[in-house]
Each structure stands twice: as structure tokens, then as C-alpha cells.
Batch of 3 targets.
Target 1
Amino acid sequence: MTEEAARILRAYGADVQIFDPHGLPLVGSEPDDHPKVRELRDLSIWSEAQVWCSPERHGAMSSVMKTQIDWLPLSDGAVRPTQGRVLALMQVCGGSQSFNTVNQLRILGRWMRMVTIPNQSSVPKAFTEFDETGRMKPSAYYRRVVDVMEELMKFTMLLRGRSEYLTERYSERVESAEALSRRVNQRAL
């Protein structure tokens, strides 16, 4: 479904990169400069918008998806790799339709200070929705994926050049990073 979304986004004129999580270590098992961690963070910083897509496993997002999100810090020095980026959510299910994964991803997107679009896609019995070449078959589920990608493009265009203004916070204007660090640093207690 991620590859199908990428094809749709390219048809809309987007420059698309897909992160392949193969080789991404568990959080904390390797340093932050691990090549796959660096690749993930660089793609996040490069992006203007993101599509998060996960299979639903045992009623939740996959551990691979959560690991990717966990490697993305809320801030990396003065850079926030996700803040203000537009986010679309999708999930595939092996059985009946569920929205557990997209709901969990929505919470994480909000936590990462992303602008999560209202529309989302959940494809049940995903094994029946793709042909032998990996393309999605024409269906209401395919049309929904197109709708979600179209909405992602619209929100991205609406927010282009306005993200910094929309995500700037009063609390950060009145308290420097150094002062905030001193205030919340538990070792100082």
C-alpha cells in the first residue's frame, strides 16, 4: 500500500522517497549515528509531508513502525524532524477492517507535532486487494487511498511556507532552550 501511495503521489507531482526499515536497529541498541537511523532522520528532515502506513498486528501497529517513530526525536539540536510536517495515515489488515493502527498513529503524529490530515485509509483482507504484481485492484479501498493522497497534497500545499508560523509556541519564545534545560534537568535536583 505504501508503494501504491507513492505512485499516486508521484502522479500528483510529488517527489517521493520511501524509507526501507530493513536493518533499522531497536531503539537504544545502537548509537544515533547508525546509518539506518541517520537515513531515517535525514528523510524526515527532508520531507514536507509523510505517509505512515503499517500493517495491523495483534490489534496494533507493527513493532517495525513503532521503532521507526521511536528513532525520530522531538528535537535534534535546534531541528525538529517532524514538527509542522503534514501526515497521512494508512493501515492494512489481514482480516476484518479495523482502525486501531491509524488511531494509534494519529496519537503519535500529534505527539510528534505533525499536522495530521483528517482522512485516513484502512484496507481489510489486504491479501485480496492487490494483484500478483503488487498493484492495488480497482475498488472503493483504492479510491480511498487516492482520496487520502489527494488530501495530503492539498494540506501540504496549504501549509507550504507557513509551518514555522503555525508551530511556533509562546512558551518557547519566553524561555530559552538553556533555561528550559536547567528547569527540567532532573540531575540538578
Note: The beta strands are 49-57, 60-61, 86-92, 115-123.
Target 2
Amino acid sequence: MIRTRFTELVGVEHPVMCGGMYIVGRAELAAAVSEAGGLGTITSKTQPTPEDLRREIRRVRELTRKPFAVNLNLFPSATPTPNEGYIAVLLEEGVRIVETSGRSPEPYMKVLKDNGVIVIHKVPGARYAVTAERLGVDAVSVVGNETGGHPGMTDVGGLVMIPRTVDSVRIPVLAGGGIADGRGLAAALALGAEGVVMGTRFMATRESMVHENVKQWMLRASENDTVVIQRSIGSPSRVAKNRISLEVLEREQAGATLEELLPLISGARGRERVYEAGATDEGVWSCGQSVGLIHDIPPVAEVMRRIMDEAEAVLRRLGRLADPEA
């Protein structure tokens, strides 16, 4: 059993969180992670309206009685995101753990904290963690450049990013990016983190709603099969290396504008063509370098069991190295 300030904060058995993933963060996956002892997360922006989010929250509760989180996506969007409506619904439904990502959560901190909500804010670096702590968040998750989705504008990996962030704040830090097994959890704990946040590993599970073709692509992929796009528009995103993402890179190098890139990088395109239809080359979709560590598609409960068994074995081995006579 590995207990940390994070497990105590959110009331879970294991220091493992499934981070919010647009489209992928659905009730079945979130409930499976929570039921297995971690913290599952549904993503509000996946739901078209606040009432759709209400139904998704209730669906999670049909599947588990354990804690889970709702992600609030604060990234700029071509269409307005009804975060005020999402917050009203999650408060009405009694959700008390929220993950915020994208821009600063400051506009929403008062209503969340006044209602006793635990806020975990995703940051791309130490200085953002310091700001988040000042705003009153309860924990931060920091992601290195290996992460799928948005790693921030720097190219700093987790081996440096995690301890830099731990040294900069007093609140619990979760480590993300490049972590898919118990070795990653043990490494994160050694660097001072109090848990991990994972996305890519949980995509390749039986409970994940993504098309089977996507999961099979992930099994064949290596750590070299992702690319970072959208640097030119100030919103870097690590995605699967495929026909569309390579075309985006070519257009960016040629000076394409945001308007010219939108038809290719649209989330709706990824949802319809990739996640639903299984055409893995026909849209951009988030994928971290940890895809190179994924070799099967087990149930979430099996993933969690392996992670915890392996992490505890690694920590015991390291303990023997430090005290050979023990």
C-alpha cells in the first residue's frame, strides 16, 4: 500500500489519476479507474451541454460509489465553452473534485472553494504551479514534454520538470508525461511527487471508448510515433504521428494561419473520423511518448494491479540497495 498526501486528499487507495482527456474521458473509463482504486476523471467539454454532463455524472455514479473528478477545460476554443453551466451542474450533483487545465483557474476558484471543491490544476511548469498554489488550488499535476496533449511551450522532460515543481510549492504534486507502469510511478515518487496522472495508458484499455483500430495502432507504435504540432499558434500538442499531423507540421512550417489549420486540427474531426470511425490517419489525436511502453489492452483493474505491484517491488528493491543488510 502506497499512501501519500494525494491519496489522503481525494480519498483514494492508489496515487494514480486518470487525467481529463477530451472525448476519451467518459463515464465507463472514469468509473473503472475509480473502482480500481485510482481517481477517474470525466471531461466536461466532451459533453455538448451542461445537462449532458449531468447525465454523464449520474452514469459514473451508477458504476461506482468511489471518488471521481470532473475536468474543466479552460483552453481557448473556437466555440464558447459553457464552464459556468458545467460548474453549476457538478455542484448540484455533489461532485467535490475538479481538475482544471488550460488557462488559469482564477475566474472559477471562488465558486469552487466556497462549495468545498478540491481543485487539482494541470500545469506545464514550476512557475505555473507557484501561481496555482497562490490562487488556492489543493494540488497540481505537472507534465513533462513527453505527455500526450498539451505539454506547454518548453521542451523540458519530466526528469527535470517534476523535482523543479516539487521544490517550488508546498501542495501535493502529481507527475505526468511518459508514465505508463509501476516503474514510472516509483520514479515519480523518488522525484518528490505524491502520485501520477496518466492518459495514454488508460486509452489502451478495454473500458476506453476509442475505436479498436486506435488501440491496435497504439500496440504497434513506438515512443517515436508521436509529434508536437501547433507550436506556431502558441498551443503545442503532442499527437499521434500520422498523415494529418505531418500535414499540419508542413503547413505550420510554410506559415499557415490558425484559420488555415483549423479544418485539420478540429476536435470534431478527430472524434468522428478517428475515435468513432477508427480511421487513425484521418485526424489529429492526443498520444504521449509512453505509447512505446504499451503492449496489450487489458481491463483497467489489471492495469492498476500491475502498476501498484511493480511500483511496490521497485521501492522494495531500492530500499535493499540503500541498506544491503536489510
Note: The longest strand covers residues 68-73.
Target 3
Amino acid sequence: MGDKDREGKFQITDRRSWLEDESVIEQSQVPETRYPSYVEELKARTELAEQKLKQRLGQLESDNDALRRRLERTLEQRLDRFKMDLLLRFLEVVDNLERALEAAESGSDLQEVRKGVELNLRLFLDRLREVGVEPIQVLNQPFDPHQTEAVGVIPVTDPKLDQRVVEVVQRGYLYGDRLLRPARARVGRLVDTVPGETSASGAKQE
């Protein structure tokens, strides 16, 4: 047999049977991703913990809202009680003022009416002190622009009264350590008193 005949009869047969199964080829091309069992367990626990945390945060937020509403209601109730108690105290002053007016209309002595008004004023100031309001004492004190508003100047010849409050037009008040209302006053200004000359007030000095 010649060489050409041997070459024509040569044939290679692949006996790997798995090549005939196409599904095996597809599975080998796309391997399935698998996690170890402990990784899957850890992942499940983490998701469960996150879910519980979200629920807990939502509950805490709801509890905080309810607490805030209760505190607001309690504060409003206390404030209302304080207002009512304060108003009742001042109604006592109103009653006394009405009695003073009735006394004046009935022809009572003017001095008695004056005493009644003075007593009511002291009572009213006492009620203000009970809630922390105090009048500012500025008369004859050095002028303090932080507590007093100067509405005028009065010439004075006494050097001790220079730049001091010599007349109070309207009393000022403090609420605790805060200024509630500044006082309005006139301040002394020292002038020369040479005989025959006109002072700062326009009056001729004798």
C-alpha cells in the first residue's frame, strides 16, 4: 500500500462525550456564584439588625414627639395658672382704686383720698416686686445713659448736682437684672453765677 493511500485513510476520533452535551458547555461558561454558608448567615443577620434598628429609631422618634407635646401642654398649663394668679393680685389694686373714686365722689376729705391713692400705689408696687419688677432709683444719682433717657437739662449752681438726675419725669423699671423700661429725667448742668449776668436758663442772676 502506497503512502498516498495511508494518508487518505487516517482519521482522528474525539471520544470526550461531554462535548456532545451543549448544556454542559453553557454551565461551564457561566459558573454560579455561591457564598459560603457563614457569609450568607452573616448577611442575613446584618439585614435583620438593620431592620430592627430602623424600627427602633422610628419608635424613638415617635416617643420624642409625644414627650414634646406633653411638655408643651404642661408648660402652657403652668403659664395659664401663673397668669391667672397674677391677674387676681392686680384685681385687688383695681378694687381699691374703685373705692378711692367712690370716696372722692362722695365728698370725702381730699387728704383721705390722697392717702388711699398712696396706699394703692404701694400695693401695686408690691405686686410688681412679687413678679420681679423693681423701680429704678435715679433721682440725685449720676446720670447713666444705660438706665435713663435725658429729656432735658436744668441749670444748677451746686457742683454736686452737675451731671446728676435732678428731676424724674417718668420712673424706670428693671425686670430682674434686665431693663424693662428706662427712666425719663432731666439732668443738672453746672452754670456760672456771676451777678448781673444771665444764666443758662435765661433768668437774670441777682
Note: Residues 139 and 165 are 5 Å apart (CA to CA).
